[in-house]
Amino acid sequence: MAMAKTRGILVVGGGISGITTAVEAAEVGYEATLIEKNPYLGGRVTQLNKYFPKLCPPNCGLEINFRRIKSNPRVKFYTLAEVEKISGTEGDYDVTIKLAPRFVNERCTACNACVEVCPVERPNEFNFGMDKTKAIYLPHDFAFPLRYVIDEKYCKKKECNKCVEACTYNAIDLNMKTQSLSLKVGSVVWATGWNPYDATKIDNLGFGKYQNVITNMMMERLASPNGPTKGKILRPSDGKEVSKVAFVQCAGSRDENHLPYCSYVCCLASIKQASYIREQYPDAKVIIFYIDIRTPGRYEKVYLNAQKDEKITFIKGKAAKMEEDPGTKDLTVVAEDALTLKKIREKVDMVVLAAGMVPTILESKIPSNIGYDENKFILSDSGVGGMYGIGCAKKPLDVYSSVQDATAAALRAIQSLVRR
Ligand SMILES: Cc1cc2nc3c(=O)[nH]c(=O)nc-3n(C[C@H](O)[C@H](O)[C@H](O)COP(=O)(O)OP(=O)(O)OC[C@H]3O[C@@H](n4cnc5c(N)ncnc54)[C@H](O)[C@@H]3O)c2cc1C
Fold this sequence. Notes:
420 residues
């Protein structure tokens, strides 16, 4: 069992929020340990094609932070890592971290020889199952660390051994086991982020039933140069180019049957994604069905600009039903225009559901008696000394606000170390 003795800050979750707290605290001079359950850092931002307000690719923001991590010996990070146990009080926590085996060591040069010989495929969760990877894979082109990983559920291990034989760097070790790491820390920052709401739960909108109904996060992957279609927006059923796409806002959000809250970013995300379509297909039409458009603060400008585009139509009306033509797989969105009170039937090639954000804690509870609100977001006052929730673990937020929140949390976490 590896032992590391520090009395610094533990940050759980290596998305933009967690990374920010870790590097900000480290740059002030405090030890920060960042743990992430995925095999790479960056969280959901890595899955975006571009992100507002600047509409740059995720790497432009993440790269700088990865460099800050690499150049600062006070930040240690572990991927495939989760908290197993935690005990103690503010200023003096004992934590046990479980490190799942990667089966690929630091000698990996990402040469891809292993992937070429691997005979097994698995659904690519990074692209929401829209393509496959081999059982040994690089999570995505810009993964940090840039190192392959083996999916234990699919790998045939020694029975196959082809990747081990193909690797000239001796980087694959199929004997790797789960490890445990003990840490002493003074404060714990929960930056566990969000998951997309499971759109199959919204029966009337056809996700999971009709192939051309996708979610907003699937749209990010379709538009990404490192996505399943190499950045070309093509509809899933037949790979056809699109000429008319509908966005359905509040797919789950602001609905007592699903998520009673507003997910904050979905209106902006759909307007952003409408621009992806309009850039690729200058003649394509976009219809956005909404209850209310919410583009807070300076983001209002983004909405006003989209309204100037004559090919983008905003319809105030909640989509009630989705129908599919079984032959062409085209879809008809049925809604009522709330302003004219007329029933609308819009035939489109593809529908994007603006699915909301739910805290990851819903799926994997964190081992702490920290306080949550009724939707399982961590409370601002966590109720436990020296423990802080930040970013989308606390509420749905954009990157800018997550980073602000994470920077403030670095200060609070430092106070927990020096308060005694
Ligand atoms: C469709 C869509 C488009 C968006 N586009 C934009 C945009 O253009 N601009 C913008 O500003 N915002 C955008 N957002 C919002 C943006 O994704 C969030 O602001 C951002 O992801 C918040 O970062 P985070 O670090 O708080 O959470 P996350 O990105 O979710 O990161 C959390 C990390 O914690 C890890 N984790 C979770 N649980 C554990 C655990 N128990 N142990 C260890 N690790 C754990 C996760 O694997 C993940 O890596 C968009 C959101 C959606 C839905």
